User: Fold these one by one.
Assistant:
Number 1:
Amino acid sequence: MLEKLPDVIGHALQGVRAGLDNIVFNALGMREGMATIAVTSMAFVDHAPIPARYTADGEGVSPPLQWTDLPAGTAALVLIVEDADSPTPNPLVHAIVVGLPPESGSLAEAAIPSPDNDGAGLHVGRNSALQAMWLPPDPPPGHGEHRYAFQVFALSESPEFSDTPGREEVFEALRASAIASGLLIGTCERPDGSIKIEESAPAAGPLAAG
């Protein structure tokens, strides 16, 4: 993780982004015509800013999510949240949750553990900070808008995941048994210091590239 990047580095890295093509939703290469899951949130609409409450500039808890249109034969669900615009070769993983029951239909606010919150007892995998919790959006200043991909996958079986599965383990399980997928994009942007001086806003939390 790149932490506390100065504005000049954020500007210099503006052209360096993992890219939407590399998020699991697109990299998985699911065939055309496969069922699509509708993923929404009561906190923000698709391609709109994520409220500060759910980022490193606020309480840093995970946002509420809902999903519908699961296909028949869904045995379990997986949630992966990635930053498509992180200045890294692959998107930064902000959350992994596996083993969600099909009948759940939603995740409540703060359901995923975070630094000051125990969560709702979910089976949580490792984020890019190697922690089994929600990693709040915290893009570097001056790097521009970051797109956070909330991806929900339906599986035809319930794989036996490790205690804290990482992206590769989950990707292989999805490759083997994913039958539908859905995507919700939320955005977050931290202006550079020169803009923040004019805003007289409260000081932001620790800065991290993601």
Note: The longest strand covers residues 178-188.
Number 2:
Amino acid sequence: MKKIILILLLFSSLTNAQESTPNPRKNEIRIDVLQAILSSKASFSYERFLANDFSVGFNVNFNSSSKVKRDFEEGYVSNLPRYEFNPYVRYALSKGKKTYYFAEVFGSYNGGDYKEIVYKVDANLNGYYKTETSTYTDFGAGGALGYKMYFTDSFGMELLVGFGYNFANTDKSPDKISRVGLSLGYRF
């Protein structure tokens, strides 16, 4: 019995020692597979790891979903997000290097198309309604929580859930920004 306890203590100290050694790989690239499958959105991320559990990075999204385009064209939604650029800062909430939770603060520069029905009056003073399409760009900010796990020193998976708000052009842009994803990444 003492040998089993001694082996378990030795094994746990080795795994804790392995967890506490810093990873020499400071850069990571990721592809969001959840957004690609569910909404035909191409989402790529880059992250740079800094000292003291901080990291910085950015995420780029491009929307090419035929369903969202069809909903926009048929009038079910009034805006069609086309692109989004999200710089972020993260702080690791747990101290593990293979698996950990993190909190994120992000900014957002986003844009797309906006459609509205406007009332017009022609030269004969006849009134009519017309659908007009324009583009929008907006800035926003928000926060997110996530979980990251590494299968090896280089390959990992990330789960992220977060929300924010647009500030500047809210009459045309979406009020809320979401950052939800399941990403696979490579750390180098």
Note: The chain is about 20% helix and 60% strand.
